[in-house]
Amino acid sequence: MGVVIIDGTTVRSFVNDVAAFQKSVDEAFASLDLNNDGVLSRSELRRAFESMRLIESHFGVDVATPPEELTKLYDSIFAKFDCDKSGSVDHEEFKEEIKNILLAIADGLGSNPIQMALEDGDKNLLKQAADLEASKINSN
């Protein structure tokens, strides 16, 4: 288990580092595209969000949400990612929506640092932002 500290500047810097951000998005997309068809289906994207347990828990405490309500929530998330309404999420749609989410997080954090406790081997994008920032500090 490790702890990283990030703020809005850390997250924004990560998004603006085109190479690092692209590499992270490519890896995330590949890990979610279970059938390797180059697009994310509704079920692939739902599986990803279910694994993050963003909706099923509130500050780490499990919340009982009726299945039909969960389906509506996941459908609305999918609709947000599926910009062209093709029924699947291509790599560019995924990248743009992840960018929008991270920039919204950066705006929300502003200059207020937060601590994140992470499991070893965690590859979430916020950790990658913190790792990028740490590598810049260590190289100076």
From TrEMBL:
Keywords: Calcium. One of its GO terms (molecular function) is calcium ion binding. Residues 20-55, 69-104 form the EF-hand domain. InterPro entries: EF-hand-dom_pair, EF_Hand_1_Ca_BS, EF_hand_dom. PANTHER family: CALCIUM-BINDING EF-HAND FAMILY PROTEIN, CALCIUM-BINDING EF-HAND FAMILY PROTEIN-RELATED. This is Calcium-binding EF-hand family protein.
